[in-house]
Amino acid sequence: MQNEIEPERVEVVVVGAGISGLQAARLLRGKYSVKVLEARERVGGRLQNHFFANGDSVDVGGQWVGPGQDRMYRLIGELGAAIWPLYDRGDNLLYLAGKSRRYRGTIPKINPIALADLGLAMARFESMARSLDPAAPWLHKKALHWDSMTLDSWLQKNCRTKLARQLFAVGIGAVFAAEPAELSLLHALFYARSGNSLETLLAVTGGAQQDRVHGGTAGLCEAMARDLGERVRCNAPVESVTELPGGSLQVRYRQGVIICNRVIVAVPPNQALRIRFEPELPAWRDKLLQRMPAGSCIKCVARYEKPFWRDSNLSGQVASPQGPVRVTFDNSEQGKASGLLMGFLEGDVARYYSNVSPSERREAVLDCFARYFGETARNPLEYVDKDWSSEGWTRGCYAALFAPGTWTGGGARLREANGRIHWAGTEFAVEWFGYMEGALEAAERVAAEVDAVLNGTTGHHDFNKPEAHHV
């Protein structure tokens, strides 16, 4: 029998080197010894770069930042990165019944009856969302009612025309990577309120898709990891967290063991279920994690010699209730000659195309691009897609979905620590849930929690202040 490996000892172990876990470690490392354990061979989590043969890179994970995401802009500045706006000039396209229609703005031009129907439904939804407190959506006087129905059932009652329902569903797919029937109405309202409004989440200029980061958002995580140095360990999946006599925690991972005072779990909720906790997590926490499955998304990018659609005064943005690609963007990087078209496969479509051959999926995506932008789009120089549901340590994107009953059944305790175990990640945010901004907000909250208990105080340390960032 081999001797047990001598355990390391630190004060805080962070499980997961996504942007939330890395930021939590950066905020704490000036006062406490910290170790970050990452299962993958890379940092970044749901943020990842792909490099084309010509050296250009593209985000195949989360990529956008926009107004109101102050933590993200501050982090980008801190790390010396630069941003540029997503291309948003020219006409957008609505592809409907085999024909393309040009339009400007967020809502496409359709027949007046369906347009009025869609506008009224959007206005009702936004009004309901504004009435929520994103810090406690379960306290709303209609929370039980809204959490008892799906977003789809609400749409059936509030969109009288089929076209309005279809277009609303396209927007929902773009925001949640899910079908309306998968979502609690209360969760959809909370999510919109968390990011200001549904219109904000759908918009480019002035909205959540406004800006990109040179070098990719994964590059931010790589810079954060370099800053943390040997505190970050990759290829280190955590197997168990065990409470020892006296209260300290033993974290066992593939290469060894660490004894610590506090553990921050900063992985997607479905991945937290892979970790064995001893004693077991409270039943309510386990049930809550089980009820937080990830959305389904495949992100697809084709590289062309140039962004040829701009020659026709097109923005590269398409909305279509047909598929499989229902939303596209011009993802070309500023200062680079190549044209990049990006599209999403989401919800049911993503689940279907996750189970076909890569060549069949590529053909289906390029068929859509050619339908929208002409035959030139069928023959890119290079093509890449990323099926996040098949990513071993993620199993879905963009974020966790809350089905009916989840918020009112357990949401009040979502962000609560379980003894010495704390929870970070975008799914534990109040503001910008599902976005990188939310991941940073959760990192600040959990860092303050851990600092308060380790420092022997219950006071709030404002990790949002610039001087609190230990760079």
TrEMBL record:
<feature type="domain" description="Amine oxidase">
    <location>
        <begin position="19"/>
        <end position="450"/>
    </location>
</feature>
<feature type="binding site">
    <location>
        <begin position="38"/>
        <end position="39"/>
    </location>
    <ligand>
        <name>FAD</name>
    </ligand>
</feature>
<dbReference type="InterPro" id="IPR036188">
    <property type="entry name" value="FAD/NAD-bd_sf"/>
</dbReference>
<dbReference type="GO" id="GO:0016491">
    <property type="term" value="F:oxidoreductase activity"/>
</dbReference>
<dbReference type="InterPro" id="IPR002937">
    <property type="entry name" value="Amino_oxidase"/>
</dbReference>
<dbReference type="InterPro" id="IPR001613">
    <property type="entry name" value="Flavin_amine_oxidase"/>
</dbReference>
<comment type="similarity">
    <text>Belongs to the flavin monoamine oxidase family.</text>
</comment>
<dbReference type="Pfam" id="PF01593">
    <property type="entry name" value="Amino_oxidase"/>
</dbReference>
<feature type="binding site">
    <location>
        <position position="344"/>
    </location>
    <ligand>
        <name>substrate</name>
    </ligand>
</feature>
<feature type="binding site">
    <location>
        <position position="427"/>
    </location>
    <ligand>
        <name>FAD</name>
    </ligand>
</feature>
<keyword id="KW-0560">Oxidoreductase</keyword>
<feature type="binding site">
    <location>
        <position position="238"/>
    </location>
    <ligand>
        <name>FAD</name>
    </ligand>
</feature>
<dbReference type="InterPro" id="IPR050703">
    <property type="entry name" value="Flavin_MAO"/>
</dbReference>
<protein>
    <submittedName>
        <fullName>FAD-dependent oxidoreductase</fullName>
    </submittedName>
</protein>
<feature type="binding site">
    <location>
        <position position="20"/>
    </location>
    <ligand>
        <name>FAD</name>
    </ligand>
</feature>
